[in-house]
Design goal:
Blueprint: H1 3-9, H2 20-23, E1 25-28, E2 32-34, E3 37-39, E4 42-44, H3 45-56, H4 67-79, H5 81-90, E5 96-98, H6 99-115, H7 118-122, H8 128-141, H9 153-158, H10 166-170, E6 174-176, H11 189-232, H12 234-250, H13 254-281, E7 289-292, H14 293-310, E8 314-317, E9 325-328, H15 330-348, E10 353-363, E11 366-376, H16 383-388, H17 405-416, E12 420-425, E13 430-437
Length: about 450
């Protein structure tokens, strides 16, 4: 009995159709090296065709390749866990990557990855037992989504390699499936429906992941800008402020002295903007304690009474009759309320009304929440301004609401407390609401 016949006779032992050889293990991919150790992933029929296509389509280079070649490689990623894991373990970028971006990089890198034949000489012997283990893992992958394959990465690698550091696998890049493979036309109706449902599910996950990625990159950009401003601008600002204050003390002319004081005030305003951006990008730790939100609302209302009166604005503060106890950072939540009050007063300008109030909501479809509302009779927000109101330095001056840096600070406070903050149109003006979980 030859080896092929022997393997086919044993195929009933495994939960997949056909024999190990029929599933097509051609050998191994180049090794994954880390800390002087090597791991080898199998080379399947699917990977063989995809890599051949990638090599033949790599002439134009990364990010400038035939879309059909990109589509074939992304389809292979969706069908072949070892190929996807190999590409992710080689990927030189950050913790998020779209399937299209990964395929474009793989196509450009393929000739260099496979041209060196030395790795073939040191590759380990692949036995029937190894192929059986790969086949079991492949069969199991058919019942899960590609995003779940990363959880089995260690099992694939340890077939031909030492034990895996779990921390390494946990930091594999997350894949955003922006390119969904076309379902196979010859599938049975029920199976076809499942494939379509899974494709749509991947699209929804991709949309969510892209939003998370955009938010993450926005925070990273804000942090980089904040550190740059802090180091490169704060020191000159401090020197300008010190010099202006010194000149003001020595100046006898009241008009010139007032001009110097304005310089100091503008420097302080610039410093506050940098501090606000630093808070948004890299906030301090939350110091939680049990707090009655009624007390915070009362304190904020009393603090802004005089400011509102100065601009002929009526400020009404309404609390609840029962305690509104939550575990929060008292100073941060109070600062968020102050920001919303200041934003409303600046939006009105003069001669209007601001109402600061509280509400408790609960029901079968939602967890209990405490709502803090700040409603004003100002000019309101346009649809476009409402989309960007919480972005750092977004200019909403057409709505009379400044640069939005304060609002992004309030938004960050809400994030740190697993709370939400939103802006909506009222009967006249705008309503800002902080929703804090009970």
């Amino acid at each position: 009995m030859n080896a092929v016949t022997s393997l086919r006779d044993q195929s009933n032992e495994f939960p997949f159709p056909g024999s190990v050889l029929e599933l097509g293990w051609w050998g191994v991919l180049p090794p994954i090296s880390r800390d002087g150790k090597r791991w080898w992933l199998p080379l399947s029929d699917t990977a063989m065709v995809a890599i051949s296509t990638a090599i033949s389509g790599s002439d134009a280079g990364w990010r400038d390749v035939n879309p059909l070649v990109v589509s074939r490689v992304t389809s292979a990623f969706l069908e072949d866990p070892p190929l996807l894991l190999y590409a992710l373990l080689r990927w030189p970028g950050d913790e998020f990557v779209s399937a299209t971006e990964l395929a474009e990089w793989f196509i450009g890198a393929a000739p260099g990855e496979f041209a060196d034949g030395e790795w073939i000489l040191v590759a380990p012997e692949v036995t029937n037992a190894h192929q059986h283990r790969w086949s079991r893992l492949l069969a199991r992958s058919r019942t899960t989504e590609p995003n779940e394959w990363l959880a089995a990465a260690a099992e694939w690698l340890q077939v031909l390699g030492p034990a895996i550091d779990s921390d390494w696998i946990e930091h594999l890049p997350a894949v955003i499936w922006d390119c969904i493979a076309e379902p196979k036309r010859k599938l049975e109706g029920s199976r076809l429906l499942q494939q379509w449902a899974r494709a749509r599910e991947r699209e929804l996950v991709a949309e969510s992941s892209l939003s998370a990625l955009a938010e993450k990159r926005k925070l990273a950009a804000a942090k980089q800008l904040a550190y740059g401003l802090s180091h490169e601008i704060n020191n000159p600002l401090a020197n300008i402020s010190a010099r202006a204050q010194q000149l003001a003390r020595e100046e006898a002319d009241p008009q010139r002295q007032q001009s110097l004081q304005q310089i100091v005030q503008q420097v302080y305003r610039a410093h506050e903007m940098i501090a606000g951006l630093m808070f948004f990008a890299n906030p301090p730790d939350v110091d939680r304690e049990r707090v009655d939100l009624n007390a915070l609302v009362e304190a904020a209302g009393e603090e802004f009474d005089a400011i509102a009166a100065e601009f002929d604005i009526r400020l009404l503060a309404e609390t609840l009759p029962e305690p509104a106890m939550v575990t929060v950072d008292r100073a941060m939540i109070l600062e968020a309320i102050r920001i919303l009050l200041r934003n409303s007063i600046e939006a009105i300008g003069s001669g209007g009304t601001v109402v600061l109030s509280m509400e408790r909501v609960e029901g079968p479809s939602r967890d209990p929440q405490w709502l803090i509302h700040v409603a004003d009779s100002g000019p309101g927000l346009s649809v476009e301004a409402s989309k960007h109101a919480f972005d750092p330095f977004y200019s909403g001056r057409e709505a009379g609401r400044g640069l939005g840096l304060g609002l992004c600070r309030a938004y960050r406070v809400a994030q740190l407390h697993d709370a939400t903050i939103r802006l909506s149109g009222g009967l006249a003006g705008c309503v800002a609401t902080i929703a804090i979980p009970d």
